[in-house]
Specification:
- The protein is of the alpha+beta class.
- It has a single domain (4-115), classed as Gcn5-related N-acetyltransferase (GNAT) (Aminopeptidase, 3-Layer(aba) Sandwich).
- Helix content is 32%, strand content 34%.
- It contains five helices and seven strands.
- The protein has helices spanning 14-22, 24-27, 39-53, 93-107, 124-129, and strands spanning 4-7, 57-62, 65-75, 78-85, 112-117, 133-140, 143-151.
- Strands 1-2-3-4-5-7-6 form a seven-stranded mixed sheet, with helices on both faces.
- Strand 6 (133-140) and strand 7 form a beta hairpin.
- It is globular and about 40 Å long.
- The mean pLDDT is 88.
């Protein structure tokens, strides 16, 4: 059976993170990478989220291999769901989302989460199928993103 573990980003070799973020298919979906990727600043910023808000992104390890990173990130007052996967693991998105959602709503006690997508992304229908609803737009790093919101089911 396939195993999915959420681990600290600090446990992943920097070289491995750089390789993921430099993958051309990953870069196509991340407009904020246009200015490049500084792994040390990235790791400091992601750890600061944990320190300041009690949640942040994890590294995803599937069957012992690094598959990507994501989870919850504090974004403009919201716990925002982020997901960056190596193309070899793109079929894992829903399973990872469910694990993060359960962590957010059951372990962290959050009432909602958001998700931001660049307007050019064609998979907003996947978010709608997961229960997210459109919630306007939001600017991040000078880029406009479509915002979606998922409420905890009571």
């Amino acid at each position: 059976m396939d195993s999915l573990r959420l681990v600290s980003l600090q446990d992943i070799p920097q070289k491995t993170l750089i390789e993921l973020m430099a993958h051309p298919l990953v870069g196509q979906h991340m407009p904020l990478l246009a200015d490049g990727f500084d792994v040390e600043s990235f790791l400091v910023a992601k750890q600061a989220l944990w320190d300041e808000h009690g949640y942040g992104p994890w590294a995803f390890v599937i069957d012992g291999r690094f598959a990507g990173w994501g989870g919850l990130q504090y974004e403009n007052g919201d716990p925002d769901f982020a997901l960056v996967l190596h193309p070899d693991y793109w079929g894992w998105g829903i399973r990872i989302f469910r694990k993060v959602r359960d962590e957010a709503f059951n372990e962290l006690g959050l009432d909602y989460m958001t998700a931001l997508l660049p307007p050019g992304r064609s998979n907003s229908s996947a978010l709608l199928r997961l229960g997210f609803v459109p919630d306007g737009e939001q600017k991040v790093g000078g880029q406009v993103f479509l915002k979606f919101r998922l409420e905890k089911q009571q």
